[in-house]
Amino acid sequence: MKKSIIISVLLITLLGISSGASAQKLWTEADRTYTLDNLKRTRDTLIRETENLTDAQWHFHESPDRWSIAEVVEHLALWEIIWAREIGISSRNTPQPELIKTSHPDSYYHDFIMEEKSHISPAFSRPTGFIRGKDNLTFFTRLRDQNIAFAEKTDADMRACFELTATKDPRNLHQVYIYQWGHVDRHLRQIRKVKAHQNYPKETVSTK
């Protein structure tokens, strides 16, 4: 009888350990911190680069076919909506951790979003140019703050939830976050390039 009880206790203990191991999330708190740090860093850097621009500086074009800083920031804000939708929907999908084995590493997505080669923006994310100056920054920061709040609170396993699952290149939501903050880093380079143009207006807004 005692032996039977001991065996039962051991089985229950082992099942509990197994269950706990299987429930362990792939998206760690370190991953969450890394994501939040970069979402906040890129938001804050964009604010510093643009918050004191004059209207002329916001809307300066290096050439007729190039975006102004206002249009760049509007484009970033539009992508914040797109990222929020992608992450919000995909985080409610059934986790598929088995896809980790065949998906690209994080570095693949980081290297792509940060490459020097020009990317062609899809039509749905191209700026309208209708928004004036600093209103573009307000548009972006409001959306980015909402996305940060979601990342802070979500219980979803962002490394086990995937999008593009019907393709040969599914990506998990941690990797989508890499695209999200890396996309801002990418366009910060573009903003600095606009500012460095020889014809860029030099006047500044008083911060007093």
Automatic annotation (TrEMBL):
Pfam families reported in the protein's UniProt record: DinB_2
Record's keyword annotation contains Signal: yes
Cleaved signal peptide residues: 1-23
Record key words, sorted: Signal
Domain DinB-like residues, every copy: 39-191
The keyword Coiled coil appears for this protein: no
Protein name per its UniProtKB record: DinB family protein
